[in-house]
Design goal:
about 15% helix; binds zinc ion; about 100 residues; 2 helices; globular
Length: about 100
């Protein structure tokens, strides 16, 4: 069984929240999501090593919009202009359980 999104909302300017269809609720600081962006500009495609310097992401980063990609992922348009990261639901749930 795959988990879906029941609702997506902004907890505050800096925090995204999702209620999953299995009843679990998660919240992420947008800066935290940006630091774990899975796109090719932030992670080396061959070595999977993160090339993005986490220090370069401001703690008060906000998002301009969030859009659904199919039925399995979200695309976040960050205010710093970065919007190439596709955050699969699986990745989002992994990021929620790591500090
Ligand atoms: Zn990226």
């Amino acid at each position: 069984m795959s988990v879906g999104v029941k609702s997506i909302y902004q907890v505050d300017r800096y925090t995204l929240g999702i209620d999953w269809t299995d009843g679990i609720q998660h919240r992420w600081r947008l800066a935290h999501l940006r630091r774990h962006c899975p796109c090719a500009a932030c992670v080396d495609e061959w070595t999977r090593k993160r090339t993005l310097d986490p220090e370069s992401v401001q703690e008060d980063l906000i998002a301009q919009s969030v859009e659904s990609v199919g039925r399995y992922a979200l695309r976040i348009h960050f205010a710093d202009g970065h919007d190439t990261g596709i955050y699969s639901y699986q990745l989002l749930r992994e990021l929620a359980s790591s500090p």
